[in-house]
Specification:
It is a single chain. With 434 residues, the chain is of the alpha/beta class. The protein has helices at 22-25, 27-32, 44-49, 56-68, 76-83, 90-94, 101-112, 120-130, 132-148, 150-153, 159-170, 197-202, 204-216, 232-236, 240-255, 267-274, 276-279, 287-296, 300-306, 325-328, 336-342, 365-368, 370-387, 397-409, 419-433; strands spanning 6-7, 15-16, 190-193, 220-222, 261-264, 297-299, 318-321, 348-350, 391-393, 415-417. It has a four-stranded parallel beta sheet. Strands 8-7-9-10 form a four-stranded parallel beta sheet. The longest helix has 18 residues, at 370-387. It starts with 5 loop residues before the first strand and ends with a helix. The structure holds iron/sulfur cluster (2 copies).
Length: 434
Amino acid sequence: MSSDSTTLPGRRSLPCAIPDTPLAAAIPGIETCVHCGFCLQACPTYVNLEDENDSPRGRIVLMRALVEGELPLDDPSVQTHIDRCLGCRACETACPSGVPYGQLLEATRATLREVRPTPFIGRLILGVFARAKTLRVMLVASRFLRATGLPSLFSGLAGRLGFANAMLASTRLPLPEREYDFGLPGARGIVALLEGCVMSGLFARTNRATRRTLRANDYRVRPATDQVCCGALHAHAGDLDTARSLARQNIAAFEHTGADFIGVNAAGCGAMMKEYGHLLAEDPEWADRAVDLSAKVRDVSELLAAAGPRAGGALPLRVTYDAPCHLLHAQRVVAPPLAVLRAIPELELLPLTDSEQCCGAAGIYNLVEPATSDAVLAPKLRHIASTGADWVVTGNPGCLMQIGAGLKRAHARARAVHPVDLLDISYARSAQKG
Ligand code: SF4
Ligand code: SF4
């Protein structure tokens, strides 16, 4: 990497000491920030750590200092503050200037990776998710472990070991399941589903519920064979090469289905797939195909809301909704999950304070930055407790496991559940009566 200081063509003032890096390519985004500070109070790390360097504005200043050569890429303090970012993108929603913070963060992490390898635990997890066969083995082993009941037994252990056990135990929900068919022709179009790594491995019931609820709303559901991990974990960690490789495999797999929509029930994966166009923008062979595919991606709640969704049978439950960051801030999907819940008669929807704030899951963040993750989760659990709800609804596996683990370790009555699971039970009741 050259350390020459040059000014990028077309830029007024920002000299670039790190040309030919992902961060250099992100200079236009850095220059969008006017340092107004409107994003500060939306940022969970700033609110919890009270350090300007752990705010969006502070991190953008650090990125700028790297670009200008005021700080070296191996500055340990820069690494710390960039590592502590959740990537929740609440700052993007708060920003009046349209700073593409998520893209800046990925570019920064990709650049920093060149001088500091990802820590061992991160490399291990990313390596597993990039290899379909290894991932399958790991998920089978996780399901076996879950079935033994040991994770539930050890979920109270101190530290990350106890938390990891609680995460796994929280994915085992005693929800009823029944097949139903309303006999609709699928006139709303063909949906190919992203099965998802964690969703297919630990939330298989939710994937089945997704298929049933889509069919109940007049969609035809078609499998997409050869699909792989969406690449979100890799992109967020700065491993853009692996993220691009996975994106290309998925584009080919989903193109093959001829589907009208790509349905996704994991907010983080949906956000990633909607950004394949940006991820592959510099790849002449794949750029247009990536844009076309991204345009077809929908969160399952968007597909259901577009169809109504049809009303189900009564479920007299007390429920509160926590918005996944990658649904609310990254995809800007606000109303559809609430429409899904409103399709369930007698369900009582209780407001949740700061439901737009991150829960601290953030991909593998809760494993690599446990202290900050716990600090971010604590107020979320307090707010959930104050609603008196029995169910916390959220549409992302990371959030389901993070909140589910927190509730379990706090011996709370409430459980975390995907909105589609509740709609599915409601439909099964309605079909049984009809
Ligand atoms: S990121 Fe946006 S809101 Fe935050 S300081 Fe910059 S311009 Fe202001
Ligand atoms: S992505 Fe989230 S944690 Fe990171 S700077 Fe933005 S608001 Fe803060």
